[in-house]
Design brief:
Among the domains are: 234 residues, no CATH class; 155 residues, Glycosyltransferase (Alpha/alpha barrel). It is 32% helix and 23% strand. The chain is built from 15 helices and 34 strands. Strands 1, 2, 6, 9, 12, 13, 14, 15 and 18 form a nine-stranded mixed β-sheet that branches. A five-stranded antiparallel β-sheet has the order 8-7-10-11-20, with helices on one face. The chain has a four-stranded antiparallel β-sheet with strand order 3-4-5-19, with no helix packed on it.
Length: 667
């Protein structure tokens, strides 16, 4: 008779400072097809547990191994049955008000930056979610008063998932599944970390952007005599603050999952760049007003059509693509790329600015619409690209005084936007009237400011950037509060911490001594939060889900935000920063994981002949990769959303493959 063995182990690492027993309470749910499930409360601490009248036997064994506590739970079916087993690990000495929670890539502290239509503590104080929603299947709790932190980490295999006919209610799965759920619970101000096998989500599922659904509980079938086991690790820490706890948790995540590089192809970086460059050659577009660029926003994955829709920064990244195509055109002696790129730069100088002197940020000629509210992020990303362009051209002996004057005038406008605390508003109009004062994305302006200091030799640009650095240290890093950098979401997100780390990397390029050392340590602190969004494991897909059919490996890919639960290739130069930090801070995990990211993102979903991965054209690297039970609008787990923006994915991978670009700029 076939047996399924998954062991449940709850362990304390012997070298950690705080060790005590945690009571574990269980609820067994038994489903009879066509009928509501019955719940059985399970009692006991050792040996066979009391599961009276249940169709399964449950045993629990507690062992002390080298100073660690290990707990093994075994479930054996006495008859054919359908079950879900959940557990709660009580955290003695923790109370809810003093506790911050951590579900990597999904929940930070109490998610209070997130709107009420996304998961947060205002909606409920208790949440349990599918493991594939998390970059590591881990739940953490940190007591701010005592400085104690606890991780509950899934250890055994969770590499198999079956298709489910429903995403709410009680669902009998179509086949074997070892994907579980993990979370936290508040009861009478006390705290527990929770788990379930197979998966469940409560008090809500989260199946679409800003759409909380009904809870779901899934059930696996056990045949008579069949056995399952569950395996977890409980690790405890003394932490200086929540940031330290997140850093320790990520180190644990990396050490336990030990992600290896992805062996995906024999392509060189140049091979991949040649393929990606087909995006530029196929997407070039001219608007009726003479503005030119690459059509890389709001395209269908099936058609990859050319639309007169241009976006300076995220998500189109027209100007960064224009610089990349120029540089590559000269490297490859490809006159078509050179000519297209130069036409874009000339057209933006002539037609790409508002009356107030800002970049025309987003122009949708196909909808006869143009934005009149501007963002510090897109404006900064345009300047970032412009300074790379100017520096490259200057080194080649080609001068662009009009562009230089335009860049300077934009920075003069930015001075008017900076607040006394050093922050910049998230959004404003052409008269610089603030429309969103949130300072969470202030870090976006630092790279171009530092680049301008290097290019023009004017210290005022560095002083502005230093003020942003001070704001970041006080309001974001010290408070472990990274938010509002994803333009279509205003919540806890990956890009906020990543941009903070990037800004500090730039500041460290042009400073020395104690100031540089400070920026290095702050960058390391922020980088742990950025890393926490990136997957250390490969989530399972079922047969028939396209991503599984093409053998997609999720390790190294990053989740996006609390609002947007999909993975993508947003990396740009973060890998370079991780390598730099690994050397500066003697942390080899950073460079090791940077290698995982590089190998995983390079070409797994790169569309080329006979490997089109459900994309309509060669070189149009996909985004909105839906890896969990969530969709951005269509198709759900295992597929892409039908609308995508390859403009930014091509730009992101290009920077990943262009090693040393930033440091070369400052030499």
């Amino acid at each position: 008779m076939m047996k399924k063995l998954l062991v449940v182990l709850l362990a304390f690492a012997s070298h950690l400072s705080w060790s005590q027993d945690y009571p574990v309470n269980y609820v067994l749910s038994v489903k009879s097809p066509g009928n509501p499930a019955q719940q059985y409360a399970i009692n006991g601490v050792e040996g066979e547990l009391d599961a009276k009248n249940a169709p399964v036997s449950i045993t629990q064994k507690m062992m002390n191994v080298s100073g660690s506590n290990e707990l093994t739970i075994t479930v054996r079916a006495n008859q054919d049955t359908y079950i879900n087993l959940s557990g709660a690990v009580d955290l003695t000495g923790f109370n809810y008000e003093q506790t911050q929670f951590y579900l990597p890539g999904f929940w930070y502290r109490k998610n209070l930056r997130s709107p009420d239509k996304a998961p947060n503590a205002r909606v409920s104080k208790s949440w349990i979610v599918r493991e594939d929603r998390l970059s590591t299947p881990l739940a953490g709790a940190y007591n701010e008063t005592s400085g104690k932190g606890v991780n509950l980490v899934r250890l055994d295999q969770n590499d198999e998932v079956s298709l489910a006919p429903l995403n709410q209610g009680e669902v009998i799965l179509s086949g074997p599944t070892n994907l579980g759920a993990i979370g936290f619970q508040e009861k009478s101000n006390k705290v527990a970390l929770t788990f379930a096998i197979p998966y469940k989500e409560a008090p809500h599922s989260y199946y679409r952007k800003l759409t909380l659904g009904e809870p779901v509980t899934s059930f696996i079938k056990l045949n008579a005599g069949e056995t399952v086991t569950y395996k977890y690790l409980i690790r405890t820490y003394d932490s200086k603050d929540f940031s330290d706890f997140v850093a320790q948790s990520w180190n644990t995540s990396f050490d336990i999952k030990n992600p290896s590089n992805v062996d995906s192809d024999d392509f060189t970086d140049e091979d991949i760049k040649k393929t990606l460059s087909q995006f530029w050659k196929q997407s070039f577009v001219t608007n009726s007003d003479g503005l030119k660029g690459y059509s890389g926003v709001h395209l269908s994955t099936e058609k990859c059509e050319v639309l007169p829709l241009l976006e300076v920064g995220f998500v189109g990244r027209v100007l960064l693509n224009a610089f990349n195509s120029l540089e590559f055109g000269y490297e490859q002696n490809d006159q078509q790329l050179i000519d297209m790129s130069q036409e874009i730069w000339d057209s933006y100088l002539a037609h790409g600015f508002t009356k107030g002197g800002l970049f025309r940020e987003r122009i949708e000629e196909n909808h006869n619409w143009e934005t009149d509210v501007f963002s510090i992020r897109r404006q900064s990303e345009g300047l970032y690209a412009a300074l790379f362009y100017l520096n490259y051209e200057k080194k080649a002996g080609r001068k662009h005084p009009e562009w230089e004057a335009t860049v300077k005038s934009m920075f003069d406008l930015f001075v008017k936007l900076q607040k006394a605390d050093g922050s910049f508003p998230r959004k404003f109009d052409d008269s610089l009237v603030v429309k969103d004062a949130s300072g969470g994305s202030s870090s976006c302006v630092v790279p171009p400011l530092v680049m301008a200091y290097e290019y023009f030799g004017d210290k005022k640009y560095l002083e502005i950037a230093r003020k942003v650095g001070d704001y970041q240290e006080t309001e974001l890093i010290n408070k472990a509060d990274y938010f509002s950098s994803t333009l279509d979401a205003n919540c806890e997100d990956k890009e906020a911490s990543l941009y903070v780390a990037t800004s500090l990397y730039y500041l460290a390029q042009v400073t020395k001594g104690k100031e540089k050392a400070k920026y290095i340590q702050l960058a390391k602190k922020a980088s742990y939060f950025a890393l926490s969004w990136y997957y250390t494991w490969d989530v399972p897909f079922a047969q028939g889900q396209m991503l599984g059919d093409v053998d997609m490996k999720t390790r190294g890919w990053g989740n996006v935000s609390v609002e947007n639960n999909h993975i993508d290739v947003y990396i740009f130069e973060f890998d370079e920063i991780l390598d730099w930090l690994a050397e500066e801070t003697s942390e080899p995990r950073f460079s090791a994981f940077a290698d995982v990211i590089r190998t995983s993102m390079r070409s797994q979903l790169l569309p080329y002949e006979d490997h089109m991965v459900n994309i309509g054209k060669v070189g149009y690297y996909p985004e909105v990769v839906q890896h969990t039970q969530w969709d951005y609008g269509k198709f759900g787990k295992g597929f892409y959303n039908d609308i995508f923006a390859p403009g930014w994915t091509v730009a992101s991978l290009w920077e990943l493959l262009t090693v040393g670009r930033t440091e070369a700029y400052f030499k």
